[in-house]
Amino acid sequence: MKEVTPKKRGAASEAKRIEVFLRERWTGLPLSKATPAVFSEFRDKRLRQVRPGTVIRELGLLRAVFETAIREWEQPLAQNPIAQLKKPRAPEGRVRRLLPGELDAITAACREGQVAWLLPAVLLAIETGMRRGELLNMRWRDLDLSAAVLSIPVTKTDKSRRIPLTAKAVEILLQWRDAAQSSDKVFQASANAFRLSWERCKKRAVKLGCTTVPSLRFHDLRHEAVSRFFELGLNTAEVASISGHRDLRSLFRYTHLRAEDLVQKLRLANSASTRPVA
Questions:
Q1: Does 141 lie in the same domain as 19?
Q2: N- or C-end of the chain: fewer Cβ atoms within 10 A?
Q3: Which residue in the list 43, 222, 223, 228 is annotated as catalytic?
Q4: How far is 269 from 253, CA to CA, in rounded Å?
Q5: Can 131 be counted among the known catalytic residues?
Q6: pTM of full prediction above 0.90
């Protein structure tokens, strides 16, 4: 936590996970007692407290801790005790797209609120598929609105990318640039301020009569955007270049295409293949 974690971009969240570990009784054991059995007991206990995805991430961090101890600190461990553990079954990817009426309710709720930047941020998330952190790190100098291209130098995967912008995205950014009057970041907001504003927005949307919106997460807008890219006819490589997914398996869980749209596509393809040749 003192030497390795601070060098990582996700240092804050990793430090919190380590603080959870430090409250466990096994942190007082000598390394000779760091056996798979100790951590299988920890795994099973955590599965009764948190979701499998959280446990998988915690085990991944513990494995990295022991790898560092063995490879870099020359600790006398014959093997990494976490490497022997059976991981919990990974949960199925979340399936959530915008439901009818939700976008209109969220848009209206944004306009009723006092935070001017929330509406353009929400609309841009749907148009670009950007993550919340990428939106908050976006700077005006990274945008070439005349070419409709955005450079994202800092991403979750630590790999920069350039993405095309839709005409609507360019329009949103041009309007916001006139209103924001900022020469640095596009959205002057912290992650916590963004989270709180999003939650207040959803509460206002409920008051406007949209009862389904409480289950909507901001990250679901990325899911919506990526699914729309596929519905527009973009192939997997093209969508990945926009969304920044490096593992295509994780990208596939975003591709929940509407069956009704696929039926229409199949009908059009079938009619074209059976059309008589002149």
A1: no
A2: C
A3: 222
A4: 25
A5: yes
A6: no
